[in-house]
Write the structure tokens for this entry.
Amino acid sequence: QVQLVESGGGLVQPGGSLRLSCAASGSIFSINVMGWYRQAPGKERELVATITSDLNTNYADSVKDRFTISRDNAKNTIYLQMNSLKPEDTAVYYCYGFILRYGSMGLSNYWGQGTQVTVSS
């Protein structure tokens, strides 16, 4: 079984910064794509950023130039550096992975449990 565990959420003032981490563990053969999604109160879950095995990145327009996704392949971990945070960034942030597990016939989708980010004065 594969598990994704997020950390780094919390309360921050507008204009502040947070760094989220997501560590993948278990019987992982390879990781094709990992990323971050978020769900704000009253809204549907939306893509924030993704990063591929060859380090191609994709960002939502709302976070481009403020957030940076990165990857440490040796540790099966991704990060989301969030700068210039705004109240509208308040959401539960979920880690996502498209991962090939030992003994499986193909890649599967995995989700973390989520970490709360609150931007408020």
Notes: The first strand starts at residue 2 and ends at 7. The CA atoms of residues 23 and 75 lie 7 Å apart. DSSP finds no helices and eleven strands in the chain. The mean pLDDT is 96.
